[in-house]
Amino acid sequence: MGERLDGSDSEAAAQKLRGRVGTTVTVKLHSGTDWGSDSGFREVQLSRDFIKLSPVFSAIIPHKTLDGHISKLGYVKLSAFSQTAAAEMENCIYEMEAQGVCSYILDLRNNPGGLVKAGLDVAQIWLDGDETLVNTIDRDGNMLPINMFNGHAITHDPLVVLVNEGSASASEILAGALHDNGRAILVGHKTFGKGKIQRVTELHDGSALFVTVAKYLSPALHDIDQVGITPDVMCTTEMLSSQKESLLKEKSPAASSLEADSCIMVAEHELDVQESKGTAS
Fold this sequence. Notes:
The chain has 6 helices and 12 strands. The strands form 3 sheets. It has a 6-stranded mixed sheet, sandwiched between helices.
């Protein structure tokens, strides 16, 4: 006999379904309102396996340039800095380059961070040379820059990075590295402001003591911790309304939710401004 899960929350149901990789579990599903009828039930056999969640989501957005042509705009959303983030981002950019993408939007909104090394590795996908990616400064004022070594960017196409108050830690380090090295324009809202380097000591009672030993500064020596990074272009309510109204007129009625995202519209406008100024590398 199986176990009924109606009334259980999603986590409790998931716990019941989990098991050893390679085994199977049979799930009986019911559709309709007549619980007394067997006709509303069907059985599905599921194979248990590891579920790999990618931190990278990408899409190609058709973008109308200033001269009226339609170009390909690469949109890349990075939701967390996991061990696989840089490798997956690299594969994504190579694929987009092969498809003829001409400019990029890197979306770090609501990315709380993760592995700082992953953030530095992602930065090197976009930067050349021996640029400083971030600086650390300890409690005695000793500063140590963390530099690239003979970096080679995958692409030099124009780049806008989206940030907001949910962008923290490694997201802020990455945004600062791309901005301060002149690689990207930042669009959105001021970031969270999390830039502490802490040493953790476990105590005898099982609790832990966190001691701040240093903090991060951007390549241009802007403090990140408790300050955050202010974007070049703020997505204010007034700007979003005016941008959305004017740009939506150029979109097709079937425009995707990405194309209708107000901050993405502002980012597209900034890419046009870059092109018109001839600053795109």
